Amino acid sequence: MGLKEDFEEYALKAKTLPESTTNESKLILYGLYKQATVGPVNTTRPGMFSMTEKAKWDSWKSFEAKSKEEAMNDYIVKVKQLLEEAAAASA
């Protein structure tokens, strides 16, 4: 399988992460996913009353220097890590 197929597989696996996954980890996944699928941020930063949207935008912006391929790789690594942590926590 190629990188894109692996990425799509792990994007599906990410949906199975437990509710206990931290917001910080979710934001990292969001930012990497957007960078991998869209590329650099192409919207203006949300206003101060949109705390969640602003946090998501900031996460995406933090990965702006990565290529789409780097973002895909990092996303896969992060999902694997979170799945392993979840499995260890439930063992």
Q: What is the top-level CATH class?
A: Mainly Alpha
Q: CATH topology, what is it called?
A: Acyl-CoA Binding Protein
Look at the helices and sheets and give the structural class: mainly alpha
Number of domains: 1
Report the CATH architecture: Up-down Bundle
Q: Average pLDDT, to the nearest integer?
A: 95
Q: Could you spell the SSE succession in H and E letters? A: HHHH
User: Counting H and I runs of at least 4 residues, what is the number of helices?
Assistant: 4
Q: How far apart are the termini?
A: 30 Å
Number of strands: 0
Low-pLDDT sequence parts: none
Query: Hey, roughly how much beta strand do the residues contain?
Result: under 5%
Shape: flat
Helix content: 55-70%
| Major sheet characteristics | none
Radius of gyration in whole Å, from Cα? 14 Å
